[in-house]
Write a structure and sequence with these properties.
The chain folds into two domains: 6-146, Nucleic acid-binding proteins (OB fold (Dihydrolipoamide Acetyltransferase, E2P), Beta Barrel); 169-330 and 372-488, 2-Layer Sandwich (BirA Bifunctional Protein, domain 2), CATH 3.30.930.10. Helix content is 31%, strand content 26%. It contains 15 helices and 18 strands. The longest helix has 23 residues, at 171-193. The model is unreliable at 504-508 (pLDDT under 50).
Length: 508
């Protein structure tokens, strides 16, 4: 039971005492008070006045916030309260509150409580703008104490699991999520300004598709069929292009039943957009403009610190071909890159195990992952992927073994993936068929399924189209200098907490 704690029991008794005194510790209808920043800004001039005049009783203010500090000095007390703008100091004493009220509540107000204070502004001897309270009341009693002030909330797992407590104790955490919200809002505005239409597509799919990944499986009782949480919205968005929507985007969650690490979470946010009558070169140029737009609107310098690196976001970004990068950046000999057996042996010597049945295209992907990706620090477009690992991308007319595709890497992480869309229904059918064949031969549970309805949609003709997906979470990590995806997700996936596996309180 979460309330079986002597400190919590003591606070519960104080809430009961308030009720006995006719004070509701959880009143309704309380409106937010004057923001602390405005209260301080409007009274800055008081600092310049003579000592005896450093107050203004002509203006009354009502502040609301969480108590973060209290110092009781007999007949008077100082407290710091925090609202969404920051900290502000209040002062209250026995003589200025209603008769008997100060003694009644001075030991009942505690750190963690949310209070409403009303009074006038004055400046203390130390120069701090403070509210001199004429009235003070608890508007929400905290019965679970906050962590000890000087050590704060240090346990990383506890911070992720109890994000609300993390935000109370660590103001910079809240700033990260304010920044995230601004980034998402700006991305949406940017695409709308480019003439794109925001749409919503299904979260539950009859066939997992749009990416190579292992899906989550659920069951629809009414239809008595399995459904898959979407791993990508791609195939539905392209159906809309077939239907005549020539510029569409969606910002939403995807779900992949895979491992968790500092850049992966089972559910994550992406923007995917599709643009008829444009090419993947157009997408790269648009992506650069998006970064310029974000940096301008967020007032960020072109060079940002990330972990122990400095990243130069100046546009245009560097471009390098996939196979060239394996040789020139990864240092892999050219004769290894184009020979299946040599590539397998090279990987084996470097400690990378591969399946005996794996094809050359997938071996090249292993080489890229092992020797190139971590070295791509400044924004870099890697272009022209092997078609074998690009089942939804259009083949190059010059080289049918190459897909007209790019990925954007920053700080050694993939941030975006885009390509000219395959709109040949017969080629698409064959690629799906090869994926199914690979699945059957190797047991690859990430290979794509055959999606006949999507092939049928392409049969009605899709205009030449390019599409791209950008990982919102990883982008926020870069722009806020956070090294773990959990630091930019309000509620990241966690192992079940002992004692909280059941929602039945009696089971706890």
């Amino acid at each position: 039971m979460i309330f079986d704690n002597s400190y919590i029991q003591e606070r519960i008794k104080k809430a009961e005492t308030l009720r006995k005194e006719g004070i509701n510790p959880y009143p309704s209808g309380v409106k937010r008070g004057t923001p602390s920043s405005r209260f301080i800004a409007e009274n800055e001039e008081l600092r310049e006045l003579d000592a005896q005049e450093k107050k203004d009783e002509s203006r009354s203010y009502r502040l609301t916030g969480r108590v973060k500090f209290i110092r009781i000095m007999g007949k008077a007390a100082f407290a710091k309260i925090e609202d969404s703008d920051g900290l502000v100091q209040i002062y209250y004493n026995r003589d200025d509150l209603p008769e008997g009220y100060y003694n009644k509540i001075k030991k009942l107000i505690e750190v963690g409580d949310i209070v409403e204070a009303e009074g006038f502004a004055f400046v203390t001897r130390t120069g701090e703008i403070t509210l001199h309270c004429k009235s003070l009341r608890i508007v929400s009693k905290a019965i679970i104490p906050l962590p000890e002030k000087f050590h704060g909330l240090q346990d990383q797992e506890l911070r992720y699991r109890q994000r609300y407590l993390d935000m109370i104790m660590n103001p910079d955490v809240k700033e990260t999520f304010v920044m995230r919200s601004k980034i998402v809002s700006l991305i949406r505005r940017f695409f709308e300004e480019q003439g794109f239409l925001e749409v919503e597509t299904p979260m539950m799919h009859p066939i997992p598709g749009g990416a190579n990944a292992k899906p989550f499986v659920t069951h629809h009782n009414a239809l008595n069929v399995d459904r898959y949480l979407r791993i990508a919205p791609e195939l539905y968005l392209k159906r809309l292009v077939v239907g005549g929507m020539e510029a569409v985007f969606e910002i939403n969650r995807n779900f992949r039943n895979e491992g968790m690490d500092h850049t992966h979470n089972p559910e994550f946010t992406m923007i995917e957009y599709y643009w008829a009558y444009h090419s993947y070169e157009d997408l790269m140029e648009l992506t650069e403009r998006l970064f310029d737009y974000l940096f301008e609107k967020l007032a960020l310098p072109s060079k940002l610190k990330y972990d122990d690196k400095e990243i130069d976001f100046s546009t245009p970004f560097r471009k390098v071909s996939y196979l060239e990068a394996i040789e020139s950046i990864g240092g892999v000999p050219r004769e290894v890159i184009y020979d299946r057996d040599a590539a397998r042996e090279y990987l084996r010597k470097e400690g990378v195990d591969t399946d005996e049945k794996i094809s050359l295209g997938y071996l090249q992907a292993e080489l890229f992952d092992a020797f190139v990706e971590d070295r791509l620090i400044d924004p870099t477009f890697v272009v022209d992927f092997p078609v074998e690992i690009s089942p939804l991308a259009r083949r190059s007319d010059e080289n049918p073994e190459i897909a007209e595709r790019f990925e954007l890497f920053i700080a050694g992480k993939e941030i975006a993936n885009g390509f000219n869309e395959l709109n040949d229904p017969l080629d698409q059918y064959e690629r799906f068929r090869m994926q199914v064949e690979t699945k059957e031969k190797t047991g690859d549970d990430e290979a794509m399924h055959m999606d006949l309805d999507y092939v049928r949609a392409l049969g009605h003709a899709m205009a030449p189209t390019a599409g791209e997906g950008i990982g919102i979470d990883r982008l926020v990590m870069l722009l806020t200098d956070r090294q773990s995806i959990r630091d930019v997700l309000l509620f990241p996936a966690m192992r079940p907490e002992k004692g909280f596996e059941s929602t039945d309180e009696e089971d706890s």
